[in-house]
TrEMBL record:
Provenance organism: Shewanella colwelliana (Alteromonas colwelliana)
Name this protein carries in UniProt: DNA-binding response regulator
SMART domains: HTH_LUXR, REC
GO biological process: phosphorelay signal transduction system; regulation of DNA-templated transcription
GO molecular function: DNA binding
């Protein structure tokens, strides 16, 4: 018996989530869907269903910190295909999504037929984007973004918790670690990013925020 297809939908807009549910249930047989409207809810689903086949990820869900959630999930669950679904569809956003490990990028303006085509392509092991690969070739990651992408899953998770304003003891409690271990991870993060403080690390992390990408797109 063929196991059910597991797809996670991470989007904070109920109407759009429902539209995706309707499309997926009508076009895919034996599909099990999971819905998350925040990064916290998404983390819980991923921990319980790390055998999911596909994640449809909105880059703007609460606490996503732009591309940072994409990077963290890509590093933590490398076997799960990720398709970014976004209202921003400029070349830079698409290119950076693919560079950070997304297997596909679907603009929210895409028709239902094209969405299904894109999802089928990714499930078949192919990449899909609305932009030609030759047009994306000019979109490269800057050195800071590359350094952030190179962090281990645990290090990147802690960096995101820094951005949320959590203290070391709070991070230690959330992750089941000692404060000393959190401090050791912090030191390793600072070394990799070439910074000396939490504030500087969070500023570096902001290079992966979407407003930065939008500014780049406007300049071009």
């Amino acid at each position: 018996m063929i196991p059910p297809l597991k797809i996670i939908i991470a989007d904070d807009h109920p109407l759009f989530r429902q539209a995706l549910v309707n499309i997926l249930t009508s076009q895919f047989d034996n599909v099990t869907l999971f819905e998350a409207e925040t990064v916290t809810a998404l983390d819980e689903i991923l921990q319980q269903h790390d055998d999911a086949d596909l994640l449809l990820l909105d880059l703007n869900i609460p606490k996503a910190h732009g591309f940072n959630t994409l990077v963290n999930i890509r590093n933590t669950y490398p076997h799960i295909g990720i398709v970014v679904i976004s209202g921003q569809e400029d070349k830079v956003t698409v290119g950076k999504s693919m560079s950070f490990g997304a297997a596909g990028f679907i603009p929210k303006s895409t028709s239902a037929h094209q969405m299904v085509k894109a999802i089928n392509s990714v499930l078949a092991g192919q990449q899909w984007s609305p932009v030609n690969s030759s047009d994306l070739a000019s979109v490269t990651l800057d050195s800071v973004s590359s350094k952030i992408a190179s962090l281990s899953p645990r290090q990147h998770r802690i960096l995101m918790m820094f951005a949320d304003g959590l203290l070391n003891k709070q991070i230690a409690y959330e992750l089941g670690l000692s404060e000393a271990t959190v401090k050791a991870h912090a030191s390793a993060i600072f070394l990799k990013l070439g910074v000396h403080t939490r504030t500087q690390a969070v500023i570096a992390m902001s290079q992966l925020y979407l407003d930065k990408v939008s500014l780049l797109a406007e300049v071009e």
